[in-house]
Amino acid sequence: MEEENKPIIGISCGDLNGIGLEVIMKTFNDTQMLDLCTPVLFASSKVTSYHRKALNFTEFNYQVINSLDQIHHRKFCLYNSWNDAVDLEFGKNSHEVGAFALKSIDVGLQAWKDGKIDALVTAPINKNNITIPEKAFTGHTGYIGDAVGSEPLMILTANNLRVALVTGHIAVSEIASALSEELILKRIKQLHKSLVEDFGIRKPKIAVLGLNPHAGDDGLMGDEEARIIKPAIEKCFDQGMIVYGPYAADGFFGAETFKNFDATLAMYHDQGLIAFKSLAFENGVNYTAGLPIVRTSPDHGTGLDIAGKGVASEVSFREAVYLAIEISEKRKEYQEITSNVLENQKVERSRDR
Fold first, then answer.
1. Summary count for the chain: helices (H), strands (E)
2. Are residues 145 and 182 located together in one domain of the fold?
3. H or E stretch at 266
């Protein structure tokens, strides 16, 4: 791949007392990754050097830059995002470390807004370590959505398994009241749009799960399926989308019915993620659809219990980088195709006059 055509992938450092920098360094210690993208880590040379020495990753090399105009396309670039000293201790919860994890995200978002990176891959954070003055911090997904002014859709993906969520990080007691026909309709449309534009699937097939056990069992256990889920599915189907359901979640995953679809829309977090992580925990990726920015993340946490031991698996993080590259390219292809169609339509109109 030519240097000027490689996507520039920004990387946030995650929780500095966790396994984030370990899986980042393990991923890019394979120099063949530099043939696919130009990585830019948002951290500081001090904390990166600390992790490199503590983990004995002496063979890992990086280029420190102090301006994003200095990006080197054949090296792993470390953008010096702060010069403050940080008190690090592997495995320890720390609000100070959380503040720097958030700073790394903010620097990455600004780099994207300035047109310096094509995508952002975020290393794991501990939500409890991060505080912001406006409201409770509930995770990357909502925070990044607010930062770019769009409503996000969480999609967990591994190979051809894709699970999206209608509701995300809310209490179980709030799920039923949060659901509505309008919200489900919006999520189906978001998912369909992402499958077409981000994953290059021309006519995606989408399965929608029910909320209640046995998908309500014809009203014996709740009426949400008949009242709000089926009407949303029918409206999408009438608009030309291939959408089926609602399916009972246990049988749907147990019988591997998901293999017949390009994506599955779950009503709430654990309904979709328990099944997903049981099937694809090692190589799963969290993708935030519905945003102008391409953002991916490994499907695991900070790993505080194994931090600093050098035993963390980088597979999920590497897959997150691969997906960021792939979606960046798919979006460019889609934009080129649709812009050519619009241009051809303009030509045809001018000829008809």
1. 11, 12
2. no
3. strand 263-266
